[in-house]
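Duplicate of #3305? Posting structure anyway:
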């Protein structure tokens, strides 16, 4: 991993700003056990990736299943009954591709990333802010953790701004030695 092309962040749960939740937005966490039951939502988010990004690493259904089998969690972001996007977490390790180990996490830590919310299909201009804010709290609570790490590609200014608005601070957590001890 080239650490010169990313911005690394950390958030403590206690530093999340207050938020008035819009109950029309909610998360559905999927695992490898219910992968098949959620294939329509997964295909929808993959389609959103192709609509919004010109990115060669857009995951396929098979890669999503590999990520889930590895132990990463996929959180589908819903608006009423419509899937708008997803984000990924892992509370065992930092993982660059969500399907392989990079470096360990401590017991009360969680790694989050891989977020995508459709630009074309989001219902409100503030949907991305809601997605990030509600997703951070949801992931903290679901995994009973109090420290969160993520990184953003340095070109992704929108993601960095949303992180700052939600209490994240710059913090270099990724070890250059690839986590090997």
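Output from current build:
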């Amino acid at each position: 991993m080239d650490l010169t092309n990313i911005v690394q962040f950390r958030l403590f749960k206690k530093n999340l700003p207050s938020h008035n939740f819009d109950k029309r937005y909610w998360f559905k966490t999927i695992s490898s056990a219910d992968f098949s039951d959620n294939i329509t939502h997964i295909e929808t988010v993959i389609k959103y990736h192709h609509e919004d990004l010109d990115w060669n690493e857009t995951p396929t259904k098979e890669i999503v299943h590999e990520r889930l089998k590895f132990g990463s969690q996929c959180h589908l972001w819903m608006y009423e009954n419509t899937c708008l996007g997803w984000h990924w977490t892992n509370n065992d390790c930092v993982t660059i591709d969500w399907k392989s180990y990079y470096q360990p996490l401590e017991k009360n830590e969680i790694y989050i990333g891989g977020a995508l919310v459709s630009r074309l299909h989001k219902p409100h201009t503030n949907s991305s802010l809601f997605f990030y804010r509600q997703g951070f709290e949801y992931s903290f609570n679901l995994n009973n953790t109090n420290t969160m790490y993520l990184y953003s590609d340095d070109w992704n200014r929108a993601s960095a701004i949303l992180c700052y608005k939600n209490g994240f601070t710059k913090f270099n957590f990724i070890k250059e030695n690839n986590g090997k001890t």
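Confirmed duplicate; merging threads. The first helix runs from residue 39 to 52. The helical segments are 39-52, 61-70, 127-143, 157-165.
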